[in-house]
UniProtKB/TrEMBL annotation:
Record keywords: Signal
Keyword Signal appears in the UniProt entry: yes
Superkingdom per UniProt: Bacteria
UniProt protein name: Solute-binding protein family 3/N-terminal domain-containing protein
Lineage: Bacteria, Pseudomonadati, Pseudomonadota, Gammaproteobacteria, Alteromonadales
InterPro entries, sorted: Solute-binding_3/MltF_N
Signal sequence annotation: 1-30
Pfam hit, one: SBP_bac_3
Organism the protein comes from: Shewanella carassii
Domain called Solute-binding protein family 3/N-terminal: residue spans: 38-274
Family, per entry: Belongs to the bacterial solute-binding protein 3 family.
Length: 274
């Protein structure tokens, strides 16, 4: 299946009432007391569009975060009850600081047994498609495989450092060549560093959209991983956060309310065009 048919069609543009978040440093305790409960939430620094990414001004990346996650957070944790800080970090550091309690929560995280032990998980609030990306010139008729074990026997399989591929069916006992950044996928495939790249297809489509790159023009195809289902994504909450239960309750109840009213899907459509 080609990326153009499996990837989510993205129209990454701000809302009419444009909401962005300037990444700012924590404030003093005195200010916290005056402005509600301080809440620090991290997102992926290398971008995870359309859920969180940096807005573009004249085609250039700004320092302002935008996306579905950002919109939801500002809907669910408004002032004066909450003082929200959204921080973009490399994903491994984001996970570590949430685990340590330096940050209260992380957005757009998949689940595995280790994460369920280390963190408190919210209810799921969207789903993504596990897929594999490859070069059309190498596999013009697509791929024939039944499992990622078979795929690994056909060539080098790559993924993103710190990402969780359990839902893809990846066996952690098999070494996985790792990249630090989604935008590097086309280059790594074209240079032969990777033969296949594991990717959530909607995120990969969003990344190419931000880069103004057409997957067909650069010779990329993608397929859904056989025998997989849409993968749920969650907010991960620190077990060390003093606000963990209030944070979880507010998020879960808010998502459920938006879902029942139809607003959750409307917000998602604003960023995906789907």
């Amino acid at each position: 299946m080609q990326a153009s048919s499996t990837g989510m069609k993205l129209t990454l543009y701000p809302f009419a009432a444009f909401l962005t978040v300037m990444l700012i440093s924590p404030v003093s305790n005195a200010e916290n007391e005056l402005n509600g409960v301080p809440l620090k939430i991290c997102v992926e620094e290398s971008e995870f569009p359309p859920f969180n990414y940096f807005s573009r001004i004249d085609g250039r990346k700004s320092h302002n975060s935008d996306g579905y996650d950002i919109q939801l957070l500002y809907r669910l944790f408004p002032p004066p009850d909450w003082q929200l800080h959204i921080i973009a970090l490399p994903w491994p550091r984001c996970m570590l600081e949430v685990e340590q309690g330096k940050i209260d929560a992380a957005m757009s995280a998949s689940a595995n047994p280790e994460r369920r032990r280390k963190f408190l998980l919210s209810r799921s609030y969207y789903y993504l498609t596990p897929g594999v990306v490859f070069l059309k010139r190498r596999f013009p008729e697509g791929l024939q495989f039944n499992s990622l074990t078979e795929l690994a026997q056909m060539g080098t399989v790559c993924g993103i450092r710190g990402f969780n591929y359990r839902h893809f069916g990846w066996d952690n006992a098999i070494p996985l060549s790792l990249s630090k950044d989604l935008p590097l996928i086309p280059e790594l495939l074209q240079r032969g560093r990777c033969d296949f790249f594991l990717a959530r297809l909607e995120i990969f489509a969003g990344t190419l959209k931000l880069m103004n790159r057409d997957p067909q023009a650069i010779g990329l195809l993608s397929q859904v991983i056989p025998d997989t289902h849409p993968e749920p994504f969650y907010m991960l909450v620190s077990r060390q956060s003093p606000h963990k239960m209030a944070l979880l309750t507010n998020f879960n109840e808010g998502i459920t309310k938006l879902e029942k009213s139809g607003e959750l899907q409307q917000i998602l459509q604003q960023f995906t065009g789907k």
